[in-house]
Amino acid sequence: MSKRLGRGLDALIPSLSVSEEDKVIEVQLAQLRANPYQPRKTFDDEAIKELAESIKQHGVIQPIIVRTVLKGYEIIAGERRFRASQLCGNSTIPAVVRNFSDMQVMEIALIENLQREDLNAIELSLAYQALMDKFNLTQEELSMKVGKSRSHIANFLRLLSLPEQIKENVSRGTLSMGHARAIVGVKEDRRKKELAELTIANEWSVRQLEEAIKNLDQPAPAKTKESAASKKKDPYINEVEESLRDRFKTTVKIKQQKEKGRIELMYYNKQDLERLLELLQKLS
């Protein structure tokens, strides 16, 4: 990992290790606060419980790294050990006090998680954006600092434009980074959400999703006077379309011609067609 990190981050890694020369103090848990720049937003409860059991038996083997702040201490590295100690009911934890700038604190938090590969795609995107915003960095400057290509940085930052619902799916792991990258290129948010729902429901691979998006991008037929007029739909028809979209998880169009008309259901591949046929058969 250190070979892939930028020089700035690589130089910080020795600062995270504790040697026999370091002065270790016992810090009250009540005096500690979490790192505000921690990019990881979710912690594995089971893993914390397992760590708590280990601490009960053996204590905290590796002291956490902290820095002094106005009211107590701020955790630089070791939030999992802190949380597990809380779970144990401990009142103190061994710690080493270091002096770090805000930028170093953000960088170190990123290092810790990159080394363990703990961050999901959205957490990493937010961490990159936070570094850029806090220290007024360009994508090029950030790429040099973290030892990643500029295209890597750009691809992750693009994910932040996705609708919240889709970002939550990526965070939970129900959609992969590959799925998210494919969906982010779709123009309409409504289409993005439909494709995300279909991907999850049908367990599509990234290739299957890309094929569905390719079918979406087929050129539309030339507009006629009739199609222009059809835009002025009855609000009731719009409401029915929306209801059917929610039910079938796909694009639905109702074409009206005076008192008659037709209902069109969009499918994106053979698997999606079979899914719709199965739903329709259940209604018969």
Description:
The protein has 284 residues and is of the alpha/beta class. It contains 14 helices and seven strands. The chain has a five-stranded mixed sheet. The chain has a two-stranded antiparallel ribbon with strand order 6-7. Helix 2 (45-58) packs across helix 3 (79-88), helix 6 (139-146) crosses helix 7 and helix 9 (177-184) runs parallel beside helix 11. It is elongated, with a radius of gyration of 26 Å. It starts with 6 loop residues before the first helix and ends with a helix.
Supply the key terms.
54% helix; 5-stranded mixed sheet; 284 residues; single chain; alpha/beta; disordered N terminus; two-stranded antiparallel ribbon; 7 strands; Conserved hypothetical protein from pyrococcus furiosus pfu- 392566-001, ParB domain
Order of helices and strands: HEEHEEHEHHHHHHHHHHEEH
- Mind summarizing the main beta sheet? 5 strands, mixed
Q: How many angstroms does the end-to-end distance come to?
A: 58 Å
| Strand order across the largest sheet | 1-5-3-4-2
State Rg: 26 Å
Tally of helical runs = 14
Q: What is the highest CATH level, the class of the domain at 2-118? A: Alpha Beta
Work out the helicity level: 40-55%
CATH architecture annotation of the domain at 2-118: Alpha-Beta Complex
Annotated CATH topology of the domain at 2-118: Conserved hypothetical protein from pyrococcus furiosus pfu- 392566-001, ParB domain
**Sequence stretches where pLDDT stays below 50 over 5 or more residues:** 1-14, 224-230
Shape: elongated
- DSSP, total strands: 7
Beta-strand content estimate: 5-15%
Mean pLDDT across all amino acids: 81
Question: Could you say which structural class the secondary elements and strand pairing correspond to?
Answer: alpha/beta
Family: Belongs to the ParB family.
GO cellular component, one term: nucleoid
InterPro entries: Chromosome_partition/occlusion (IPR050336), HTH_ParB/Spo0J (IPR041468), ParB/RepB/Spo0J (IPR004437), ParB/Sulfiredoxin_sf (IPR036086), ParB_dimer_C (IPR057240), ParB_N (IPR003115)
Keywords: Chromosome partition, DNA-binding
